[in-house]
Amino acid sequence: MIVRTLDEIRNTKNDVKDENWVSRRILLRKDGMGFSLHDTVIKKGTETYIWYQNHLEACFCIEGEGEIEVLDDEGNKNGEIYPIKPGTLYALNNHEKHLLRAATADMRLICVFNPAVTGDEVHDENGTYPLLEDEDCTRVK
């Protein structure tokens, strides 16, 4: 069994910060679950371009409000905008390029990635996490 608290993750290498967001990486590939789990805060008033070319992602909003705008294959706006509020799930099941925006307050999301991330990924210039191969993907006991 794996039991962790956010307090154990805060201010460690699994508490990843960007100017637009904070991602607390709770479960990682090395945990052997087949997915990773993140507690992510999108900062108020920000817009972030993301394209998970190598991962599927599902996010469930638990605090705040915002929106996700789906972009076309070239990254241009195509008009599909979905509001996000507590209780909203969005799943990027087709590797959609998108803009994620937080409205008047920080937006907190619980996010699941498949395949699981190692925890060392950073968004590249395309908004993508590369597929990283870590040397020791064995389950932590």
TrEMBL record:
Keywords carried by this UniProt record: Lyase
Which sequence ranges are marked TM in the entry?
none
Metabolic or biological pathway, per its Swiss-Prot or TrEMBL entry? Amine and polyamine biosynthesis; ectoine biosynthesis; L-ectoine from L-aspartate 4-semialdehyde: step 3/3
EC top class named in words: lyase
Asked if Lyase is a keyword of the record, the answer is: yes
Catalyses which reaction?
(2S)-4-acetamido-2-aminobutanoate = L-ectoine + H2O
Write the Enzyme Commission number(s) for this entry.
4.2.1.108
Q: Does the keyword Lyase apply?
A: yes
Q: Spell out the InterPro entries in the cross-references.
A: Ectoine_synth, RmlC-like_jellyroll, RmlC_Cupin_sf
Q: Which family does it belong to?
A: Belongs to the ectoine synthase family.
What does the UniProt record say this protein does? Answer: Catalyzes the circularization of gamma-N-acetyl-alpha,gamma-diaminobutyric acid (ADABA) to ectoine (1,4,5,6-tetrahydro-2-methyl-4-pyrimidine carboxylic acid), which is an excellent osmoprotectant.
According to UniProt, the name of this protein is L-ectoine synthase
Organism field = Scopulibacillus cellulosilyticus
Q: Which gene encodes it?
A: ectC
